[in-house]
Design brief:
single chain, 295 residues, alpha/beta, Rossmann fold, three-stranded parallel sheet, 40% helix, globular, binds guanine
Length: 295
């Protein structure tokens, strides 16, 4: 049996339509326009394409958007000054600094400088702490997108064995934490595997839901999963370049073989990626509403 494809493109489209309505309403009824600034330091090709997509989507939805592209040599002090400027700017409700940053810039210092009320990435320790406690906050965009995909596809998570591969701050740690909480798309029993896990296959083979976020193309093969598994593939690995100069992408899961065994699977591209961007827009709208006292 071939798996049902969980299309991030389709789910993201539905959420964007909902957001468009909310944004139009905010403008008409409260004269509020959500504002987002994206900041890119350097020219990492993947980061350039992510930031461009984020600004473009914001504009399409009616979000006021600014994009700041800085040279790779920008000093940490200049970046902190820019963040401070946007912390004070009332038109801006969300500040996104694209990661990774060049090595000479301390990433934590930059993320901690963002006003937690404008931290639409959900990376500030105030928001991370609230997330772990199950309090209202900005949820990090990729895990937030995964929760939406599971919920909107009707995947039951309560009581299931969820295995997460990868312990990054952006995906692995937060999605593991969210799925063990008492919340929609939660109540799971969660195992988080990483580079020092003794027998990763033991865990992947018993997973009801497998979330791969390791950055190794086609790492997980059909013989490492059980029949009926739900696969969420977060990997976006550039494995080559097409003749027209477009990056060829592969996930962390060998889609062609694993789709024959899985019950649900997300494709790459067109799976988790479009959801991440959409949840950033959702967080920006949430931030604008909070600033206007509407939440
Ligand atoms: N780099 C990779 N994913 C992300 C993300 O979700 N937010 C930011 N700011 N940088 C990233």
């Amino acid at each position: 049996m071939s798996a049902r494809i969980i299309s991030g493109v389709e789910i993201a489209k539905a959420i964007r339509e909902e957001l468009k309505g909310e944004i139009a309403d905010l403008k008409a009824k409260h004269n509020v326009v959500p504002g987002l600034v994206t900041v890119l330091v350097g020219e990492n090709p993947a980061s350039v394409s992510y930031v461009t997509a984020k600004s473009k989507t914001a504009k399409e939805l009616g979000i006021y958007s600014e994009q700041v592209d800085l040279s790779a040599e920008t000093s940490e002090a200049d970046l902190l000054a820019l963040i401070d400027k946007y912390n004070q700017d009332e038109k801006i409700h969300g500040i996104l600094v694209q990661l990774p940053l060049p090595k000479h810039i301390n990433e934590a210092r930059v993320l901690y400088a963002i006003d937690p009320d404008k931290d639409v990435d959900g990376f500030h320790p105030v928001n991370v702490g609230k997330m772990v406690l199950g309090e209202k906050c900005f949820l990090p965009c990729t895990p937030h997108g995964i929760l939406e995909m599971l919920q909107r596809s009707g995947v039951e998570t309560s009581g299931k064995e969820v295995v997460v591969l990868g312990r990054s701050n952006i995906v692995g740690k937060p999605i593991a934490n969210l799925m063990l909480q008492k919340r929609p798309a939660g109540n799971a029993t969660v195992t988080l595997c990483h580079t020092r896990t003794k027998d990763t296959d033991f865990h992947t083979k018993r997973a009801d839901i497998l979330i791969a976020a390791v950055g190794v193309p086609n790492l997980i093969k059909a013989d490492q999963v059980k029949d009926g598994v739900v696969i969420i593939d977060v990997g976006v690995n550039r494995i080559g370049m097409s003749e027209s100069g477009k990056a060829i992408l592969a996930g962390d899961v060998d889609f062609e073989s694993v789709k024959e065994k899985a019950s649900f699977i997300t494709p790459v591209p067109g799976g988790v990626g479009p959801m991440t961007i959409t949840m950033l827009m959702k967080n920006t709208v949430q931030s604008a509403k909070q600033a206007a006292g509407l939440l």
